[in-house]
Amino acid sequence: MKKIKSYSYRINKNDFINAGKVSSEIKKNLKKIGFTNKIIRKLAVISYEGEMNIIIHSEGGGIELEIYEDKISLNIRDIGPGIDDVELAMTEGYSTAPSEVRELGFGAGMGLPNINNCSDDFKIASSENGTKIESTIYLE
Amino acid sequence: MKIKDIKDILKAKIYTGEELTENKIQGVFASDLMSDVLTTEFFEERSILISGLNNPQVIRTAEMLDIEAVLLVRGKIPNEETISMAKDNNMVLMTTNYNMYNACGILYSKGIKGLSNEKNQEL
Hints:
A: alpha+beta; about 30% strand; B: alpha/beta; 5-stranded mixed sheet
């Protein structure tokens, strides 16, 4: 299917001050285009959890929002150190986040499960070079 | 119930969004864990978030889910950044002196039910 529009956002390591800013912009762009609140909310959750993961765990990365005629994809990519055990990280409640992150209200081990739950299609690949998540929501 | 009624019941102080307190809400979610709040994305109800987490992340989380009002417990005073983020997002931000348990209990006794999904209802 034809790609209609795409946006690219950069996210810096440990940038807790701006945490959520990218997701806020993504949400505003989706609203401007006119998707339903339900679809926007799911994408906002995926993006926000992904953004927090990049800030907390990686050396930096970014999110690409791709809008097609029949679907919307969020590609969340970061540079190292990667996830040791992806299956374990997908378990609700499993977390390797430091305590300062918990003080922000995150690091409860729900990030990846939340992303998965909100996605119609979810792919994750991780190595010591980084992590790639491809989350897709199909438009009705 | 109107947001204003919740404000009155819990003797809350409003920081932003006074003009939005006539809006009605249908459900409440209470948590200090933002990822737990982010599991509520499937709800359509107009809602309020009660939290002990006093930082901008509580507003960001509410923003992502179209939550209309955030109520902080135990008299926590939000900082400038948190207040201005709530303002930018057209959100009511208020604080009550009640602790989390009592704030929730009082609202529940007045007939406001919590948002819940099927998984929680099985418990």
